[in-house]
Amino acid sequence: MLVFGLTTAYAGKTLTICKNDGVRFITIPDPTTGAYPDIVLWTIQGGDISSSNLLTTNPVYYNTAGQYKTYNESTFTSTGQTQYDTFIVIVRDWPIPSFYFPKDTGYCNGSTFSLTLNTTTFPGVKYEWNTGETTSSIIANTIGKYWVKVTIPSDFKTRTCDSVYKEVNIVEYTSPVVNLGNDKTMCQNQIIQLDAKGGAGYKYLWNPTGEVTQQITATFPGIYSVEVTSPDNCKATDEIELIDSCPHIIYIPDAVSPNADLLNDVFVKIWNFTPKDYNFTVYNRWGELLFETTDLNAGWDCKVNSELVQQDIYVYKISYIDTDKKYYELRGTFFVVR
Length: 338
What we know:
Blueprint: E1 2-6, E2 14-18, E3 22-27, E4 39-44, E5 51-52, E6 60-61, E7 66-76, E8 81-92, E9 105-108, E10 115-118, E11 126-129, E12 137-140, E13 144-153, E14 160-173, E15 184-186, E16 192-195, E17 203-207, E18 215-218, E19 222-229, E20 235-244, E21 250-251, E22 255-256, E23 270-271, E24 276-283, E25 289-293, E26 303-304, E27 307-308, E28 312-321, E29 327-336
Parallel strand pairs: 1-3, 2-8, 9-14, 15-20, 22-29
Antiparallel strand pairs: 3-6, 4-5, 4-7, 7-8, 10-12, 11-13, 13-14, 16-18, 17-19, 19-20, 21-23, 24-25, 24-28, 26-27, 28-29
């Protein structure tokens, strides 16, 4: 049982206890005369009893958290004096609310690291970190073990309302090493194997192909990059440029014969590379647009509105961006033979 000795000398004293604890209020004699008051009246807030006229009260239990006052009125009939005192009891609630604390974790080497370790806010809670800090949260930015003890204390050393202990180990993870090698020259449709390497549990993402395997096969010039993610979620990237080094050849016929013999029925160009932003148009001699496509493999079947055009000379225009990233435009004429 907790005992709170009351006297004029302790007027205004505050006692902190835990919910459901009990307090016995005791009247002690006047320190000058040694006499006890003849009449005592206790007025008690928040307890399971609201008043008492005993020099030492029965145990008063506090079942609800909060701050409460107890008033004491002591009368000495020998002198006719009445003394009034006020005492405060702070009742702490419990248990401490649960809170998230990370499991053992880490950060990737070569990266900046900062982890905020949060606990909880709760009336009367005290925080003790192994770093010496006493706040509800700290920032961890080095490897090692971090622990915190969260406590709801009372004014009695042998009594703690509740306590929670949490700890986390922070380590440094190894980031992947990715090296696709030096840039290389190639011809279109040449096969070049690209390998991101890595290890068990690694993930891969290639650009621009979108493939997710450790190795891919490149058959076109361009820039290829890969992002490698380790099982610890550390990432590394690298890229390589496959430079088109073969001469580009474009064959455009000067005549076409749409006679359904499956020979030269469609006006189509032939080339040995793959451009970007491709556009192919055909016009008649008066500049009217007859055909347009951005499909690299499409050709003109010499029809307009499903009808074959007449025998005549026609104009073509082909524009594109080559693998050297330059814009090209080809113009010319061809003959439709009927």
